[in-house]
Design a protein that fits this description.
single chain, alpha/beta, eight-stranded parallel beta sheet, 8 strands, 33% helix, globular, binds D-xylitol-5-phosphate, binds zinc ion
């Protein structure tokens, strides 16, 4: 099953509620919530208050992507505020198994993410415990960057390892995804597609419809 996950990092924050409504009406299942701490990545995005507001506005699945050093410090609070899934970076956390256990105990789904320069083998020890593997297709930190083509091979490698183990772990991609490159990513094995600027720039409802048509094979 393929899922589109629009990243609200690219939303107009003065219109966030209305834009969430448009996304929901257009048939999107996930909202991708990019939390940046100014340490793991250079930029700072938003955190608890925004997650809290988004949760009150929508019942869609909230896919929280923590670009945060030592994310284990925030898991309890993010789950309390309404995250449905939390993805942590393999480069940022020294206690991944314990953090997954905590997320799961609080009823959340767990994701493990890796940056473009990190070898895929770094996430292999966590694939059995994870619900999702997130292959970053840009260097994390900013929306609107260009897709890094070398990441296609990493998506293939992660999907191959998941299949080899007989798991049904989702493979998410994030960064630089556009209507023109989504198909090759699906073919490489991605099934959760994050898109920020390609959804929120211009006509949101039309952008979603165009993505869903490609993703559903129309
Ligand atoms: C990048 C974030 C992405 C970003 C994607 O660090 O993790 O989720 O919002 O934005 P686009 O789709 O514009 O590259
Ligand atoms: Zn993200």
């Amino acid at each position: 099953m393929n899922y589109l996950a629009p990243s609200i990092l690219a939303a107009d924050f003065c219109e966030l509620g209305a834009q969430l409504d448009i996304i929901k009406k257009a048939g999107v299942p996930y909202i991708h919530v990019d939390v940046m701490d100014g340490m793991f990545v250079p930029s700072i995005s938003f955190g608890m208050p925004v997650l809290n507001c988004v949760r009150k506005r929508t019942e869609l699945f909230l896919d929280v992507h923590m670009m945060v050093e030592r994310p284990e410090r925030y898991v309890d609070e993010f789950m309390r505020l309404g995250a449905d899934g939390i993805t942590i970076h393999v480069e940022a956390c020294g206690c991944i198994n314990d953090t997954f256990a905590r997320i799961r105990a609080l009823g959340g789904r767990c994701g493990i993410a890796l940056n473009p320069e990190t070898p895929v083998s770094r996430i292999f020890p966590y694939l059995d415990a994870a619900d999702m593997a997130l292959v970053m297709t840009v260097r994390p930190g900013f929306g609107g960057q260009s897709y890094i083509p070398e990441c296609l091979d990493k998506i293939r490698a992660v999907r191959a390892e998941i299949s080899r183990r007989g798991l049904n772990t989702d493979v998410e991609i994030d960064g630089g995804v556009r209507l023109c490159n989504v198909k090759e990513n699906l073919e490489a094995g991605a099934n959760v597609i994050v898109a920020g600027s390609a959804v929120f720039q211009g006509d949101i409802a039309k952008n979603v419809k165009d993505f869903l048509n490609i993703m559903n094979g129309a």
